[in-house]
Amino acid sequence: MSTSKPVVDDTVSRRDTPVERVVIEDTTIRPSAAASEGTVKVNVGVEGVIRARWKEYIIHTHLLRRHSGFFRATLCGALPGLKDGTITFQAQPETFDHFVDWLYQQDAYSVDNTKTDFEVYVLAERLVAPKLKALCLDNVFEELEYGAPSLDEIAYTFLALPEHDPLLRLVVDAECFNYGCRHDLTDEDKVKIGLIPPMFHVKFMIRRNELVHIKGPRAERPCQKDYSVLGWI
C-alpha cells in the first residue's frame, strides 16, 4: 500500500461524528412506495473550500433513512442540518461518491483500492451506516490478512475512529503479525511515526506482549470473523 501522501484530512481528524448511535430500521419497502417519498438535496464539501467546488447530490430519502442513522436523524429533525430541503454535510465529495454508489448498487458495489476502503469506512462511521462499514472492513481484512497498513493509514484511522472500533484492532493485529517493527526508516517515515496518535503505540505494545509472552509461537492468526461491526449497530 502506498504511503506517497497522507490520507488524513481535517474533515475527520476533528472526530466530529454527528451522532453516536441511531437505530436503523431495516424494513423492506416497495420501489413504487419509496419513490413517492421524494428526494432531498445533499451539499457535500470541505470547510474553507469555495462553494463552487462543493458537490450537490439529489438522493431518494427512503435510501438515506434506511441505510444511514445520521441522515435518518437529520431528516426527522433530531439533528440540525436540514434547511430549505437541503442537507449540508462536510466530507470529501470524492469519498461521498462511494457512499452514494453503494446506496444505489448495494451488493453490486465494490472498491478495488484499500486507501479508498479506509476513507469510505471512516465516512460510514460518521454516517452511522453499519452495512457499508462491514463491507469496507471485509475488504480491508483481505488486504491486511498477510499485509501491513501504511504509516499514513495507521495515523488516519487512529485519528478518525472511536477507541474500540474493530478496524483499529485489525490495524494493530496486521502490524503485529505481518510486519513487527519497520527497518530502514527514512526521515519521512520518522516524521510520519511522530504523527501517529499514542493510542496506537499503547495498543500495539499490549498486543505484542500478549502474542510474544503469553501465547508465544502457538498464537493463532486472527480470522475474518474476529472483526465485526455488529456491536456498533
TrEMBL record:
Coiled-coil residue windows: none
Domain BTB: 46-144
SUPFAM superfamilies given in the database record: POZ domain
Gene3D superfamilies linked to this entry: Potassium Channel Kv1.1, Chain A (3.30.710.10)
InterPro entries in the record: BTB/POZ_dom (IPR000210), SKP1/BTB/POZ_sf (IPR011333)
PANTHER family linked: BTB DOMAIN-CONTAINING PROTEIN, BTB DOMAIN-CONTAINING PROTEIN-RELATED
Name of the protein in its database record: BTB domain-containing protein
Biological source species: Lophiostoma macrostomum CBS 122681
